[in-house]
Design brief:
Length: 326
């Protein structure tokens, strides 16, 4: 069942079910091709899916984290797709075999939280729903706020309605017959001791929630988030710089028009990566010297300020050279 791809183990899983869950959202149920139980995972985990066209994309697991017979993911067809969501919607079919990574979790629930506020925007419900089910089973205190454009575009409504925690969920539909928008400023105005916030969804939604929480004094260790995608902001000051490989002393120039990972790959140095947008942390690399120009959405503000790691898929350098811990 386990293969190796890019030096990382993968699972060979079969698509046993593909279902239109909401407008432009398909759910996929994946099971072991040989019938073996799947590796366990915790709420907030994701898998890297290797697509038929060679792309690798990350999708959050949204089924019960106690299940070992299947993984379930949900995929939104993006209007500005770079190929991943289009492949999942139009190419991948029931019966197909896919290579996927072992589950990884960069978005775990905190064991110390006295209360959890779950904020989901659109397809961001996928990890948030798994969290809600886990919290409900452990009788933890939580509330879920689910924002979508319309009821037709909100996935898992029946599943939520039939759940034991349906009374803890509030829906917000911005383009319905009776539109209602979430008031994040009111919701996050009061800092609660031991309360943790979990946010997932479009970048604009997440930025708004996190910025408002920080404005009201919420500490970083009570803010948890996972970005699905981000636009890499180009700057007129972006230029070429050098990268030094600490283990060999080799120096590679990074041209203005190339990312660090692209230039290193051309020099025969491969760094494992997935999203190519600075949201997943797969390519996170240690920095021993120099000042990175952080362009990712993965690292926290404090982690960026430390300047001891960066995401070479999108980030660059403010200094003339970066010494990388590879």
């Amino acid at each position: 069942m386990t293969n190796t791809s890019n030096n990382a183990p993968t699972l060979s899983l079969r698509v046993i079910k593909k279902t239109l869950e909401a407008v432009d959202i398909y759910t996929f149920e994946l099971a072991s091709a040989d019938g073996h139980p799947l590796p366990s995972f915790a709420a907030g985990s994701h898998i890297d899916v290797h697509l038929p066209d060679g792309l690798i994309r990350q999708y959050s697991l949204c089924n019960d984290s106690n299940e070992t017979h299947r993984y379930q993911i949900a995929v939104l067809k993006e209007t500005a797709s770079r190929g991943g969501s289009l492949a999942m919607h139009e190419i991948v079919q029931e019966g197909d075999l896919l290579q996927v990574s072992l589950p990884r979790n960069h978005f775990p629930l905190s064991s110390s939280a006295k209360k959890s506020v779950l904020l989901a925007g659109g397809i961001g419900i996928t990890p948030i729903l798994c969290m809600a089910e886990r919290l409900a089973k452990s009788a933890a205190e939580f509330e879920l706020h689910y924002c979508a454009r319309s009821p037709e575009r909100a996935a898992f409504q029946k599943r939520i309605a039939n759940s034991s925690f349906s009374d803890k969920v509030k829906f917000y539909f911005s383009q319905s017959d009776h539109p209602q928008k979430i008031d994040l400023n009111e919701l996050l105005a009061t800092l609660e001791d031991g309360c943790h916030i979990y946010v997932c969804g479009p970048k604009s939604f997440m930025d708004a929630a996190l910025n408002i929480a920080r404005k009201h004094g919420w500490p970083e260790n009570q803010l948890h988030y996972e970005f699905f995608g981000a636009e890499i902001v180009k700057s007129e000051t972006d230029g070429s710089f050098d990268v030094k490989i600490a283990s060999s002393g080799r120096i590679i120039n990074i041209p203005k028009e190339q990312t660090v990972t692209q230039a290193l790959a051309a020099a025969g140095i491969d760094i494992l990566m997935s999203c190519e947008q600075g949201v997943c942390g797969t390519c996170l690399t240690g920095v021993l010297d120099g000042i990175p120009d952080h362009k990712d959405s993965y690292l926290t503000p404090d982690e960026k300020a430390a300047n001891d790691q960066f995401t070479p898929c999108c980030s660059r350098a403010k200094s003339a050279q970066l010494v990388l811990d590879i």
